[in-house]
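Quick entry between incubations.
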Amino acid sequence: MHQVKLAENIYYLGYNDRRTHLFENIWPIPHGVSYNSYLIVDEKVALIDTVERQYIDDYLEDIDAILAGRKVDYLVINHMEPDHSGALRAIVAKYPDIILVGNKKTFGFVESFYMKPVNILEVNDNDVLELGKNKLQFQMIPMVHWPETMISYEETNKILFAGDAFGSFGTLDGGVFDDEINLDFYEEEIMRYFTNIVGKYCPHTQRAIKKLAPLDIRMIAATHGPIWRTNLDWVLSRYNKWSTYTTENGVVVVYGSMYGNTQKMAEVIARQLSERGIKDIRVYDASKTHASYIINDIFKYKAFIVGSCAYNNAMFPNVETLLTKIEHMGIKDHYLGVFGNFSWNGGGVKNLMKFAEAVKWELVYDPVEEKGALKKDKYEQCIELANAMADKLLG
Ligand SMILES: Cc1cc2nc3c(=O)[nH]c(=O)nc-3n(C[C@H](O)[C@H](O)[C@H](O)COP(=O)(O)O)c2cc1C
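Done. Structure below.
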């Protein structure tokens, strides 16, 4: 077996998942995902996080191969989510004297998921665990992406063990370090990982970035995706951009439509945006494109125009699902447009407006609602909606 090292005595223990279709049983991962754990072999031996439970056998074998009879002294738990704590019980069973290292919120999760922990070391900001020549400093970064989340900073080699922060979808297909892979391929997967998984916690991510800024970081080892040792600015600048809701001058147009009338309104709006000089216009059918990709584009572009036909006094269910996710994510600083279609007594636009109130994005024009086929006056209102959005963006 190849052994991949971050430093002379620090090992990467990662496993590629190309079988799972949906991460967290929600988010599509067509390019898979990796689960990364790390092993520091010093006077004391420390594991940093574990892996998803389906890899337990390989994981234990790989640890054995490196340690050749030595025991693991510490399991540092940066993050308790089961894709990283999945092997915790197996590790404790194999090394009964192991000390679990976490913060005051960690051990409650250990107990609720696995068992009452026996040997624990509770750490807080700035505490340092001496392993020999390696020293792990801890910093709490709550809600990036769970309440107990923390990072471990290895002071000698200046490695940030970052948990889910700076993680990525996409398996590591041979290349493990950022300078061994083509980042163009990973860009979309890194962004989707951020927006789908961490995106709700942008203010917390900002706090974490500021808190970690004083550290001299030479390498970032996350629990998913590549290890960053060359292009740290590449990923840091992107995380900074995304978590401050910094967007480009584009428009995401989403519609839910059964018979095509709402879609026709979307096409008119999109065409007019283009005539006004907007180059980045992404039009999505909410029934076809998974929310994962649409949310990603909402993080990319400043404007969102959403349309829905009426459906049982509500909006079209697939639009509703998408908007519920967006609302929960608390995405900020967008321009909004609303349109829809009905035949009886409406329901689509009425509920789109509830979404508008909830997200508090700036509504650039009154909602446009047509009854059946698109006619002249509502066609013109669609044009005006697009113009109002273009004015805002180009303003
Ligand atoms: C299952 C179902 C439920 C509907 N519910 C409503 C409704 O509550 N209110 C309404 O005005 N129209 C309702 N309609 C009619 C459609 O919203 C209407 O025909 C609209 O023009 C469809 O737009 P589309 O062409 O974009 O699919 C419903 C249609 C279906 C099939």
